[in-house]
Amino acid sequence: MKYLFFDIECSVVSKNVAKICAFGYCLTDEKFNILEKEDILINPQGGFHLTDRKGTQGLVLPYEYANFKKYPTFQEKADKIYSLLQDRDTLVSGHATMNDVKYLNFESKRFNLPPFDFAFADTQFVYMNRIGEFSRQFGLGSIAQELGVEFTAHRAVDDAYATMKVAETMCKEEGLTFSELLEKYQITLGKIKNYEITQTTSTAFVEYKKAQEKRKEEREKLKAEFHIFADKEKRKRAKDGKLKGKNICFSHPLEMQLPLSKKLLLAAFAQAAFITYRAEECDVYVCFADENGARLKSAQSSKARIFTPEEFEEYLKK
Predict the structure, then answer these.
(1) How does pLDDT run across 20-53, given as a tens digit for each residue?
(2) Cα–Cα dist 121/302, whole Å
(3) Calpha distance 164→95 (Å, rounded)
(4) What global pTM score does this model have?
(5) What structural domains and CATH numbers belong to the chain?
(6) pLDDT higher than 90, residue 261
(7) Three-class DSSP category at 117
(8) For FRET with 213, which of 158, 191, 267, 315 sits at 20 to 30 Å CA-CA?
């Protein structure tokens, strides 16, 4: 068994387009001895337009962009790339591999090439399983730094090498081969076939998703109960009081603390307040002190008065 660690850089990435300009790879044996290591540079047949999500300047690749016109096209390098990825005696892996596999899919369609057909691991996903953390992504740079791996970010071959070193370090820490490491954490490889992509998964990840969905259902149930209570009790709202003509809004976490939120809402109705569920429309916003989200920012932008539950209770007593 050989291991192929790869990384891809693109000159342009959008919803349905990814023009590959570099395919870097590091091929090793099961003991992580390097057999081949190369940065395959590719003419993307277009300019470089790398922007962030806001459409402003994004990352800068450590290459001379003007040189790419001299390199072969993806179509001309396809045979090499297909042979590397589709060797049945090779375990393929990347870091956040789904992104790179999508790029390969786009390019194979762009040039009317056969669909890729291989299974793949993901060192990021392995790392997440090892630490039991699935709520956020972990960049190659942060993991590499933690494990003491040095490399030049966004140079495809260096990213591939760093991915290999991350895998090697995790394996050494546990005294396992890479295949055994995947087996230990019950990780199922992702797949690409017939232009369809299936992401990597694991028993722990499936359980996490189930628990996450259960928590979501519980939150929605609590919010619904609060809204039903509010719609019923607002009919008894006082006609006059210190909140007359004012819209009050509670944060979602506060809404779900039903004994507290119901008590505060009844006190607000007793002071002639109206209830709104749109933070941008409120005059008074009540939330816990440690909250800091989009809803709070909307309330602040609308110049609403912000209270903690304790502050709001004191305010109503005055």
Answers:
(1) 999 999 999 999 999 999 999 999 998 888 765 4
(2) 47
(3) 9
(4) 0.82
(5) 2-199 (3.30.420.10), 215-317 (3.40.50)
(6) yes
(7) coil
(8) 191
